[in-house]
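for the writeup, i need someone to sanity check this before i put it in the appendix. the sequnce is what the collaborator sent (i think, or maybe the updated version? ugh). structure was predicted straight from it, no edits. if anything looks off just tell me and ill rerun, i have time this weekend
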Amino acid sequence: MNTITTRTAQPTQDGAGVKIRRINDANGQLDPFLMVDELKSNVKDDYIGGFPPHPHRGFETLTYLLHGGLRHRDSEGHQGGVGSGGAQWMRAGRGVVHSEMPTTDSNGLHGFQVWINLPARLKMSDPTYRDLQGEDIPEMSFAGGSARLIADQWVFNGETGQGALDTLGDGAGMADLRIDAGATVQVVLPAGYRLQAYIYEGQVRTADGQSHGDGTLVLLPQTGDTVALDAVEAAGLLLLAGRPLGEPIAYGGPFVMNTPAEIQQAIRDYQSGRMGTL
């Protein structure tokens, strides 16, 4: 990828009627990421049904909340809950059944769920879960803005910080970046990493002179160098960075493997109870 491209989030529903905006791709355009969902509503009926028990195999999920609360349960016995500013990370690996349900005391919900692909050698690894409370996620300030570091190491305007999670997938990161109006933030990337920026508030200008607004995922060239983001107005961005896996992607609803045959096996394993029950 040598040019800046964009994707626009599309309104849809998932779980028990939860209204979301979604960007996904089965052709590797987002590699190593698979999907970005934004959940945002102050209307309880839009989200209170949550995501009842359902299976996954072959990837990781990370749910990050700006506002609201979610509780997690899964077939491996993991349980947890987070509120505003918190995150829930799960490696589905060889297969797990889980649920994510909004807490009834949350007044509105605004957050994101991101799917992170796993390489073939990790797709059948053991399921794992960890939740991060808001206070567990490091925050850093620098000239022109601030960031909450969810996973991996980040460098903004010469300042370096480490996320709450060492990494995602097989080497990927996530950060919640805020840029002051009129300011520029320089993001330094490791060699071979590609940066993607989902804009959830304000407007941002990229190096090609184009401005991008709310609900846009900007896919920047793979440079392993420095990427400049200019805030036309005060902006909030969910940053995703990682080294593309470059492996075949086979989608089968809640399963992501490398071949159609592996998807069919995942379906059989789920139907036979091999992924557990909840």
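The chain has two domains: 14-136, 139-247. The helical segments are 260-271.
thx in advance!!
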